[in-house]
Amino acid sequence: MLVAVLMLMQGAPLDCADPYTQMAMNRCAVLEFQESDAELNAQWKLTAAEMKRRDAEPIDDGRPGYFETLLAAQRAWIAYRDTHCTAEGYYARGGSMESLLVSTCMTDLTKQRTRDLRDLITQ
């Protein structure tokens, strides 16, 4: 019986404007993260291109270039985001709400990082 209910729920349309089950909330949170991640990736391309353009103007001060610095920061940020949000999920460790907490955290941090990347090239 439970398997049949779960199969029906997976095929049911998802209303993220008003999710009413934990499963729906979890699925909607993942979809929202995926959307914010796509926006981040689009902004990354713009910011990376600008940093590479800036690197084309030679500065001989012995420090890493714009893009090299940006890439190192992005890699560190991804590691931070993933581990920080895993820790936030531990508020409901092992429970059905854990993935909601992780996805929501990742969405929030990803949206902020997208703004940060945009600010790097608009200031």
TrEMBL record:
Q: Which InterPro entries match?
A: LprI-like_N
**Residue ranges annotated for the Lysozyme inhibitor LprI-like N-terminal domain, each copy included:** 18-117
The protein depicted here goes by the name DUF1311 domain-containing protein
